[in-house]
Request: fold
Amino acid sequence: MTNELVLSTIVDALEDVKGQDICVYDTAKKTSAFSHVVICSGTSNRQTRALANSVSRALKEMGRRVHGIEGSETGEWVLVDAGDIVVHCLQPAMRAYYNLEELWGPHKIEVAPLIKAPSEN
Reply:
């Protein structure tokens, strides 16, 4: 299973729950801990939890292991550990404060090609 297929599944799961400003970064040259980081905004605690749960469910359906979900208690910043891919679902204030894009950027992977066409879902 390629990382592109897994990333596509993650982006689709975030899109399904109306995730905002989805960014994907290739981090393989920056850390050996994981190969990609996905960052997404949600407008409320409920939505960030729903975004993380959607990603977790989609990955499990494709046979991928989810190592853990952190931050569900408050929902301000929920992290999904999918092994070589880490997904951050944050509320806008948390995202602006921690500015993960500065840490993992500046080179984003284009998200549009990762989104499946409606006929593919």
Strands lie at 20-26, 36-41, 68-70, 77-81, 85-90, 108-109. The CA atoms of residues 8 and 27 lie 17 Å apart.
